[in-house]
Write a structure and sequence with these properties.
About 65% of the residues lie in helices and about 0% in strands. It has about 300 residues and is mainly α. The protein folds into two domains: about 1-55, no CATH class; about 80-300, MetI-like fold (Orthogonal Bundle), CATH 1.10.3720.10.
């Protein structure tokens, strides 16, 4: 009986006697609206530290810790920015950050894609075992290898150079590239193997297949690895603090510590320099946002 009633109601709805309120499009719009209404407050909450940093960067020194907190500076002191960028060798810190970040990003992209290609496209004895070693390395905290790494680099004479920061990025699976190898391997497994077989019939080797066929198809995951790597090393503080003792070699993350003195912290200058430091990350993320989201979404499409 209920089935007949439902069928009769559906026939009347198709005839236009009953208005169709919950169409598929309406349901989709309502779901998206609810999702956005839930995400907007969360997004605003996540932006509060960034807004407070920018607000503090425009305050005079005596207004930083006023109570109640003043979100809109009055007066607005734009001079904090030129003062913060000139009182310290900011241009030198910026050059050092760009130098070692670009070097390590290039290394990790090349190594991660090459090793990920080997795990995803090649069959060799012990492949799964070595891949499990890579996964186990992901579970090992960086603090565990901190002291052995420092002792090793000290004996090699690499202290106070960029080598302890750059060279590990070119070593697959031993340091921070394990997660990127995993991402690349998962993405590569979604590419048909017929492409490799066609290239082999034309006489291409594995390096040529990786460079000319696989990499051009993998812009999303390459962009994802590059963004992750750049952000992590751009904000890295512990590594430069351990290995770089010369003021002329300090990157931005370590150079900002100079605003913290023994008798206080110049918070208005520190926030101004920090605001400038965040700009490259924001530009990088929004300029490559489409590739980044596709790279994250497509690394789990296969369980092979």
């Amino acid at each position: 009986m209920p089935t007949r009633i439902a069928e009769a109601r559906e026939r009347r709805r198709e005839q236009g006697l009953i208005p169709r309120i919950w169409t598929a499009r309406t349901k989709r719009v309502v779901k998206e609206l609810v999702a956005h209404l839930a995400l907007i407050p969360i997004s605003i909450t996540m932006l509060i530290p960034l807004i407070w940093m920018f607000s503090t960067s425009l305050k005079p020194k005596g207004m930083v810790f006023t109570y109640p907190p003043q979100w809109i500076p009055n007066p607005v002191r734009w001079k904090n920015y030129p003062e913060a960028l000139t009182i310290l060798p900011f241009h030198l810190f910026l050059r050092n950050s760009m130098t070692y970040c670009v070097a390590i990003v290039i290394g990790q992209v090349l190594v991660s894609t090459l090793v990920g290609y080997g795990f995803a496209r090649l069959s060799f004895p012990g492949r799964d075992f070595f891949f499990w070693l890579v996964l186990i390395r992901m579970m090992l905290p960086g603090t565990v290898t901190l002291v052995p790494s420092y002792v090793m680099f000290t004996k090699m004479g690499w202290i106070n150079t960029f080598l302890p920061l750059v060279v590990p990025g070119w070593l697959p699976g031993l340091f921070s590239a394990s997660f990127y190898i995993f991402l690349c391997r998962q993405f590569f497994m979604g590419i048909p193997l017929e492409l490799d077989e066609a290239a082999k019939m034309d006489g291409a080797g594995h390096l040529r297949i990786w460079w000319q066929i696989i990499l051009p198809l993998c812009k999303p995951v390459v962009t994802t690895v590059a963004i992750f790597s750049f952000i992590i090393h751009w904000n890295d503080f512990m590594g430069p603090l351990l290995y770089l003792h010369d003021m002329k070699l300090r990157p931005l993350a370590l150079g900002l510590q100079s605003f913290q003195g023994a008798y206080g912290t110049e918070w208005h200058w520190l926030m101004a320099a920090s605001s400038v430091m965040v700009v490259p990350i924001i530009i990088l993320f929004f300029s490559a946002q489409g590739y980044f989201l596709r790279g994250i979404a497509m690394t789990g499409i296969t369980g092979r």
